[in-house]
Amino acid sequence: MADERIYMTAILTPTPGKEDRLEEVLLKQAEHVRKNEPGTLRFQVQRGTERGGTETRFVVWEVYKDEASHKIHFESEALRNLMQTFQEEGLADGPKNVFRTSAKGGVTREA
C-alpha cells in the first residue's frame, strides 16, 4: 500500500529581535492543530541555529494523514491568521522555505 501521508518542512529565519514572538505564534498554531486537526499527525516546532552559526532558525515538521487532512490545515482560518500575523508584525526575515516531500525510506523510533 502506498504511503498517502504528506510531509512538510518549513524553515524560518526570524527577524532579529522577534525570535521569542515568532516562537509564541508558532506554538499557538501547534496548540490549535493539536486540538482541531486530527488528520495532522505531526506539527512540531523546533528552534536552533545552523551548525557553527549564531542566527536563530525555526524548523516546523508537519505530517498529514492524507491530502484531505493537508487541505483542512492549509485552508484553515488559523493558518490564515498565522500568515497575517507574520506579515503585520514582520516576524520572518527573508523567504520562508517550505518543502513538500514524500517518504522514500529510513527509520522512525519513538523512545
Automatic annotation (TrEMBL):
Gene3D superfamilies tied to this protein? 3.30.70.100
ABM domain spans which residues? 6-99
Q: Which residues form the signal peptide?
A: none
An example of a Pfam family matching this protein is: ABM
Which domain of life does the UniProt lineage start with? Eukaryota
Record-given protein name: ABM domain-containing protein
